[in-house]
Amino acid sequence: MRASNSDLPIRFEKMSVSERGLTILDGITMQIEPGAPTLIIGPNGSGKTTFLRAAMGLLAPTQGRVTWGGRETSPALRRAFVFQRPAMLRRSAAGNLSYALRAAGSPKSQRGQRVEDLLARVGLQGLGKRPARRLSGGEQQRLALARALARDPAVLFLDEPTASLDPASTKAIEDAIRCVAASGVKIVMSTHDLGEARRLAGEIVFLHRGRVVERADAVQFFSCPKTPEARSFIAGDLLV
Questions:
Q1: Residues with Cβ < 8 Å from 209, sequence gap 6 or more?
Q2: What Cα–Cα distance (Å) separates residue 195 from each residue in 26, 79, 112, 179?
Q3: Residue 23 pLDDT level (bands cut at 50, 70, 90)
Q4: CA distance 195 to 23
Q5: pTM above 0.70?
Q6: 162: nearest Cα among 188, 191, 132, 186
Q7: Is the peptide bond before 9 cis (omega within 30 degrees of 0)?
Q8: How many CB atoms lie within 10 A of CB 102?
Q9: How far apart are CA 46 and CA 48, in angstroms?
């Protein structure tokens, strides 16, 4: 059974993150609510990964705060994160999932079936015995997604999960993400690919220089962006 949405909304209140005197996120105030996927877009260096890490609770704000369901301190039991370059354990694909299920407290008697279900959920059925590190890049990314789902998250953060993948692998990942979102899991995902954002997003959060420059329904954002920065980004112009 999937965890409840008690970590939602995730609220940012004048939240800033700085490192070594450099401001990465600057005074962000917004909230992430249940519903269709939220896609975080923006040029390189705009703060997308830092935004996701702060929303997950992996780093503390320098100023302001982040709350989960109204709580400033919330164990990440209902949240999961898939990194852009996930590490694979030195064991089979099924072994990676068994490890994740054990860490999540899944009953031992249920793990075998859960492993098969998770592999099928991301399109890796039949590959359970293959060493995880011998899977292709796209297959490893799907296995990382399945490992995250082993936690039964209510909120799933994805950091550019299709970066550097070929079109077939990208489609497989996107199909899996759609299925996860359709099951009720809130997806919060960064991407550099505007086509992917059009295909997956329910709403768009556009970051530039560490600030939320524009936030809108995806259809509205792409058809009628309100800010010059968003219009330039959609047009493919360089933003500095």
A1: 26, 46, 47
A2: 27, 26, 37, 19
A3: very high
A4: 29
A5: yes
A6: 191
A7: yes
A8: 13
A9: 6
Would you list the DSSP string of the chain? -PPPSTT-SEEEEEEEEEETTEEEEEEEEEEE-SSSPEEEE-STTSSHHHHHHHHHTSS--SEEEEEETTBSS--TTSEEEE-SSPPPPSSBHHHHHHHHHHHTT--HHHHHHHHHHHHHHTT-TT-TTSBGGGS-HHHHHHHHHHHHHTT--SEEEEESTTTT--HHHHHHHHHHHHHHHHTTPEEEEE-S-HHHHHHH-SEEEEEETTEEEEEEEHHHHHHS--SHHHHHHHHT----
Pair 204, 39: CB distance under 8 Å: yes
User: Structure tokens of 157?
Assistant: 């953060």
Q: Which CATH superfamily, name and number, covers 10-87+154-235?
A: P-loop containing nucleotide triphosphate hydrolases (3.40.50.300)
Express each pLDDT in 145-174 by its tens digit.
Answer: 999 999 999 999 999 999 989 999 999 999
What angle separates helix 93-103 from helix 137-149, to the nearest 10 degrees?
A: 20
The token duo for 162 is 């299709």
Distance separating alpha carbons of residues 25 and 46, to the nearest angstrom: 8
Tokens of 29: 């105030």
